Fold this protein.
Amino acid sequence: MKKEGQTKDIRPKPPTTLKPTYKLWLETEEGYVFGRGTLELLEEIQRTGTLSGAAKALRMSYRHAWGVIKRTEERLGQSVLKTRKGGSLGGGGAELTKAGRTLIEAYVRHRIVFDQIGLDELSWEGLSMKISARNRMEGEVVSVEKDKVSAIVRLRIRAPCIVTAFITREAVESLGIRKGDRAIAVVKATEVMISKE
């Protein structure tokens, strides 16, 4: 209880540190298809080899787990799970179809990209400022060198000179970058990025 004559503490609070966070899911034109919960279920099915084992590991009922799989398949329009019935001696099980494995790969690939953006302060600064024209250099791809993980893309710009960008192999294949393409080099303080129109 405040005593008579006592003033309220109006000292300013220290600034709150904000950090970006997100919830990722995959969807079609019709809406939601796949998110973190379904990802965990499919990963447990891969690990245990059975739907019942996966449900038990995630502390959900078999019926609920089966419902998650069926809803995903309906929304995707493809089967994500292949089951085998067991007899009196057992032998039943479940395994992911190619569509199921592709779904996991797509989700994980997107999550890695979003996680990297979240850790990159320069990327978040970019949300509040426009890229100046001098940081964008359009040119022609003169070579693409790939190894198992990364790729080197060389771009001849109008200066004239060739700009070299060291990016992931996955980025090259996702963008479909080939020699002779028109591309844009976006120069940041720490790296050269590549994009296509």
